[in-house]
Design brief:
Radius of gyration: 20 Å
Number of strands: 9
Shape: globular
Strand content: 15-25%
Number of helices: 12
Order of helices and strands: EHEHEHEEHEHHEEHHEHHHH
Helix content: 40-55%
Largest sheet: 9 strands, mixed
Structural class: alpha/beta
Amino acid sequence: MSTLPMTQDTSYPFDISLIIVSFNTCDVLRESLQSIEREKGSLHTEIFVVDNNSRDGSVAMVESEFPHVRLIRSEVNLGFGAANNVAMELAQGRYVVLLNSDAFLCPDSLQISVQKMDAHPEVGLGGGRLVGRDYALQPSARMFPTILSDFLVFTGLAHKFPKSRFFGRFDRTWADPMEPAEVDWVPGAFSIIRGDVLNKVGFFDPEFFLYSEEVDLCRRIQKAGYKIMYWPDVVVIHIGGESSRQIKTLEMSSAGAQLVRWRMRSTLLYYRKHHGVAAWQAKMLELALYRLTAFRNSFSSNPERKERVHRNRNLGRLMHQAWADTQGGRVSPPRPWKFD
């Protein structure tokens, strides 16, 4: 384990305020909380679970098995950012650690992240190396989205040329994942944030119900003059990457289509907030690619290619709906966003 010194700041009652947002993830939530118990060591830690109206026994499990956890029950699904905000309002740690309910701390990850933040006061937010249960690397250090990077990802060029600094720019696939780096943003599955930085820049923007909220927060932290860092020796197992791969097969199911539509809503909200007219450009890029893909496959009798036509036409319809839902990225639909 690293031997970097830890700084004691007596103005904060806790070293860490650790926040987990839960929504129908009882079994993995238990595993996540168990990993915290193993890894908190001598750190003075308060733990929050914000439950987004789960129906799977998550609340009862936390109450019975982790009575020391501060459980906050919401009567509605607040979404990711707004639910975290509820606990952030109460947090008294000099650092706030966000951990997904399907993410588990690996040995020394919590201690190392605190040591690094103590040693680097210029860092406002840090993230670690996210891996699956098989320790396969997940995207962990990213650059801010642009219309160009969206084009490279949607067309598959980023995947085809991962070692290229140009094509692999969004997920930094060209970089050595074992090298620490200053980046634009890190996924919200795990992050450690300086408490006084949150007080300066504000919490998550609740307009982002799901998706893009961590990108927006990291952009505001950067604008305030702080660095966003990726640390490969802070390792966190995250099974969400494995789960999200399954959503691709559900794209046009009722629930799957709604998640795609929510992603589109958040994309439009993000671009409108930070880049104005780029919201329209993002819409037109996706529509053009969906139409082109549908057209290219429309002349084939192959069942798989016919399915691609159907899928891409539906994606186009979802983008039109998302544009209308958000008035071109200008407003967020009332929370909670609903499956309709």
